[in-house]
Inverse folding.
C-alpha cells in the first residue's frame, strides 16, 4: 500500500463520512487542475480523478484544493489557536480543521 493511500485511509479513520463528503463538495477541481497543470498532462481531467489525486498524493505534498486556501496562513491559525499547535504540524492538517 502506498503512503498516499495509507494517509488517505488514516484521514478517513480520524474523520467521519460527513467530513469526507463536505471536503468533496468544497474541493474545486478546476482550480486544482489549473494550479497544478502537470496533472492534466498526466491525464487527470474529472473531479473524481482530481479528488482521488488530492486525497492520496496532494495532501502529502501540501497541495491546496480551493482558491480561498491561497491566502490561508496556517501557521498563524495554529499558533493563534494554541490548543491546535500541539496537534497540527502541516498545512493540510490545519486546512482540514479549518
Amino acid at each position: 500500500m502506498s503512503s498516499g493511500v495509507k494517509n488517505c485511509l488514516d484521514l478517513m479513520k480520524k474523520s467521519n463520512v460527513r467530513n469526507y463528503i463536505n471536503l468533496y463538495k468544497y474541493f474545486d477541481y478546476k482550480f486544482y487542475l489549473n494550479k497544478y497543470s502537470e496533472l492534466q498532462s498526466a491525464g487527470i481531467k474529472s473531479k473524481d480523478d482530481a479528488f482521488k489525486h488530492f486525497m492520496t498524493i496532494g495532501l502529502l505534498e501540501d497541495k491546496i484544493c480551493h482558491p480561498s486556501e491561497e491566502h490561508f496562513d496556517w501557521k498563524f491559525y495554529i499558533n493563534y489557536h494554541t490548543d491546535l499547535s500541539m496537534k497540527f504540524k502541516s498545512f493540510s492538517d490545519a486546512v482540514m480543521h479549518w
In short: The two ends are 29 Å apart (CA to CA). Helices lie at 3-14, 17-26, 29-35, 38-41, 47-58, 74-80, 82-85, 91-97. Residues 3-14 form the longest helix (12 residues).
